[in-house]
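Recall the central idea of this unit: under ordinary conditions, the amino acid sequence of a chain determines the structure it adopts. In this exercise we apply that idea directly, starting from the sequence alone.
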Amino acid sequence: MKFKNIFVAFLVILLGWMLLTWSLELQSILLGVGISAVLSLLLCGSCTLFNEINLTPKAFAYSFWYLIVFLIELVKANIDVTRRVLSPSMPINPGIVKVETTLKSKMARLILANSITLTPGTFTIEINDDALYVHWIDVESDDVEGATKAIVSKFEKLLEVMYG
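Accordingly, the structure predicted from this sequence is:
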């Protein structure tokens, strides 16, 4: 497991480097590889952060699909919130709802909670075992099943494959 954590940390740091420098010059790439290797060896030799991630082709494919689903939901939520801001007469029904998740991985729950929070109109307040408490700008359903279907179901299936 130690090598897996170091390898995933290396990839994440290198990806961050590539996105920050936005350069494909050999010197920049080599510097990024060196910095990523040193940081991942120093900082992730004993970390357990990436133990739960699946390093399979299917998990990688689902990671890209997750990004697409998240971006679609992000755009839809931005349009909805923008409409509500520009049309003050549109009714809102804010509230805190409880949603349940079947995800067992702590990392998968964290990503789910962050995805909900990053989507405008929703904000994860607390994670408590299998339950997430979410502030929702327009509560469509106050029962757990309905709220779970509306908020969580799009992300949960994909995260299950990525994190088991």
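Helices lie at 2-21, 26-43, 57-86, 106-118, 144-151, 153-163.
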